[in-house]
Amino acid sequence: MPGVRLWQSVWRRVGPVACLAVCAGFWTCPKAAAQPPTALQHTTIVLDAAHGGEDLGAALGSVPGAEAAAPEKVVTLALSQRLRALLTARGFAVVETRQGDVAMDEDARATASNRVRAEACLVLHATNAGSGVHLFVSSLAPMPTQLLMPWKTAQAAQVTNSLKLGNAIHAALSAAGRDGDLALTIPTTLGRTTLPGIDSMSCPAVAVELAPLRDKDGKVTSEVTDADYQTRVLNALAAALLEWRSEAGAA
Amino acid sequence: MTPRYQKILFVVLFAASVAMTAVLVRLRERAHDRLLQTAMSEGTTAPTVAPLEQVTLMVADDETSTLAPETIALPLPDDPQARARAVLNRLLSQYYGAQSQHPLPPVVNPVESVFLMPLRRASEDSGKSTDRIAIVNLSTQFAASHPSGLETETLTVLSISATLHANLPQVMEVRFLVGGEQQATLHGHADLTQTYLTAASAAASGAQP
Ligand SMILES: [Zn+2]
Q: How many domains would you assign to chain A?
């Protein structure tokens, strides 16, 4: 049968390539994908500004939905750029998953993160709900690093480190208001949940969600768009990453 | 050359398979609609003659990012699926209003239906386990009006999962639909493509047992 023969010939040529492509889609090799660091290379931090393009994220500000409300994608990009400047000044090498208003899916973000051997990856979000800073670490169960990690659960090898990083950031944010003024304290929570982008990252990774500051009656005292509030949070994040780098260097 | 009778046979079989696909798709859609219609027509409130029962709500708190148990008395229908739906709608109504520790905008019947199905694990003999997976079908209005954020959406999902387990201990896993369809996230953040383990939901949010 000529039809069958044609398929057999096509399969013989395309089959092995197709199989390899499918396997590559399901598996990741974090060590092979990462660039080996040189003596001159700085500690690398990946900053992932969540949302972008048509994905606006939350409408932030006093009146969500109103024209004046800032889309979350704009705030996260601004946070990423400001934090990049702070970290570069402290001698870090910084990689941003997006530098403009572009749409990126979770796989593309994880791919961009896994391309570099990062010591820490921060995924930046902002919200109107709750107060202070919400930190999230992947809820995957820890497992030892293997040569080939399944793409969807690559973070499992780094969950223990991600929790340490989360605790370091938590401590730095909690210490941010200790200089004699309790009103400057940034309430911080640390939780765990399923995070599709982070679950595929092969670096210690924490999602950082900035929420407004509120008084004891729940009234907003600092919006997430407040530049002073952002500066305090970003300085605390930079301090946490300095601490993280020195601990990694000592280990 | 392919014989003529083989060509005709191929065309007939191909046409038959296309027709059968169309019929199966249509039947599946009708069954889906019928299932949703039945579930939505179940009462969320019990008849007034139903006795009050103790119900444990796992209530979310945005400030501490935790769940806390709260016991209330509620009249409940007999059917387990209708009971689950009534408990969840009562839980979510707890969050309406700015004074709530986890404020959500009010929505009528935010949970359209709950399906309880046997949970089969590969390691177990089929039919012996009483464990259940709950499929919670949220209304599109509830998802669209839910505040957008990682913490707030996560707490809603964990609160629903932990409340189901607190009142129906056989519910070990929970999956979510929105308007009868699978949706990627609740409102941009909480992942709804995953199965949530009810025991882990309580632990992840620091809830007391
Ligand atoms: Zn976000």
A: 1
